[in-house]
Amino acid sequence: xxxxxxxxxxxxxxxxxxxxxxxELEFGNVFQLLVxxxxxxxxxxxxxxxxxxxxxxxxxxxxxxxxxDSDEIYEYIKSVSYPNAKAQxxxxxxxxxxxxxxxxxxxxxxxxxxxxGVGRKTANVIQAVAFGQATMAVDTHVFRVSHxxxxxxxxxxTPYKVEQQLVKNxxxxxxxxxxxxxxxxxxxxxxxxxxHCEKCPFDTICPKxxxx
Length: 212
Fold this sequence. Notes:
Number of helices: 11
Distance between the termini: 24 Å
Helix content: 55-70%
Order of helices and strands: HHHHHHHHHHH
Number of strands: 0
CATH class of the largest domain: Mainly Alpha
CATH superfamily of the largest domain: Hypothetical protein, domain 2
Number of domains: 2
Largest sheet: none
């Protein structure tokens, strides 16, 4: 099976079985989505969804969050990974949004990357989920699944290289959804430890490149 055929088979399956898909993070506006994605780095969406209701009640927008220091934000997020650093990022990010963008989250990829705590993955998620852009965010799940299913080569050994290959091979109109398809497949089926191959619809074409 060629790599092109592999992409076609996998994408066809997801289009039929999961035509509508989105982030599992819970949010009420674009600012809240940005906060949730920043918090989700090296942490589960489940944990973030437990933390953000109280956080968003206290800080529903950038203006509200910009008025406090990181210590107050920390009290709401102390159960997530790296809470001190993330609280500092959120405080600085909120102030930057108010000062430079009137409290709104910019849609530009380059502008997003200037915000504290925002890297390529976060910027791609915001562009795809909030602004409907054809971006491909690569987190640990997408990175792992892309390698295991043979969608990328062993030499694609960084998230950016994987992103480049996925963008090259996934049709533009499917990219935003493909991120979620691969992420959810990695979260619930092709897990890091003991993948559930018996549940995998791609088991018969999987090259078994399971090397953690």
